[in-house]
Amino acid sequence: MLFTRILQGVSGGVVTVVAMAVATRLVEKGKRGNAIGIILMGLSSSLVLGVPIGTFLSSVIGWRALFIIVGILTVVPLIAVYKYVPNIKEKEIITIRMQLSILKNKKIVIPVIVTLLYIGGYSTLFTYLTPFLQAKSNLIVSQISGVLLLAGISSFIGSKLGGVTVDKKGPRFTIFIGLLLQVIMLLLLAIFGGHLSLFGLIVVIMIWMLVTWGTSPAQQFYLVTQAPRSPDIALSVNTSFIQFGFALGSALGGYVINISSVSNLGWIGLSIVLLSLLIATILFASERASKDLDQSLSKES
Predict the structure, then answer these.
(1) Staple 41 to which of 22, 77, 159, 234, CB 3.0 to 4.6 Å?
(2) Spelled out in words, what is the top-level CATH class assigned to the domain 2-295?
(3) In terms of DSSP H, where are the helices of 62-193?
């Protein structure tokens, strides 16, 4: 089971990266952000629908039969991709050394650290959101299930909205606003989580999910602009750091619960995302200063 899970993780990561890379090549330059958002929208919607549907079907037909059905269903997208997606050939072969060398590029390393931190802060709380809500509020299990469903829907919408915003406002604006709103929502959950009404709690969590998933296509598109000669490598590295963020956040959340209380997860997630916002702000400010300096020197010359 562990081995098959590893294969699923590897293949899933490959499909996600290649899908985003191909999507950016099939659209006009001004619509690349939206294309990445659509791919991530498919990813987030699968998380929203897959868990409850899979849980229900496994209780009805058993997990073995469900695995067989899922395996058969994968033939459908396989045929669709083979039939409708054009064959895109790279102009140059990308070696393993070239892929590893991109980690020496500060234009790539610093943004993926931002990814690692905000995803880590997100998963620190979201992984344990049910016990967090149980500890901080008087919600019953059915109400929490409803909140989680709305949170999933918000992540679906956020992926699409983030892609559209990137094309209209640019990746830096979308990333900064997304991280800022994440910090504000986590602060509200940490301070007022137990005092918010059900409606207020739903609104805060939905906005948090919306902006978190809305930040992802902006981050992916930003990396594409930073590595125009090797966008596939940049996307693959960022996807790896997203997975690292999920793993580290979940582990950190479990450690916090073990040594203190689940109620502290809001503050821990807030601190990590706040650090991500700080790094992104410094990065964008330095890029703007460098751009202004270059323009000033060009005018003088």
Answers:
(1) 159
(2) mainly alpha
(3) 63-73, 75-84, 96-101, 106-126, 129-136, 141-169, 171-192
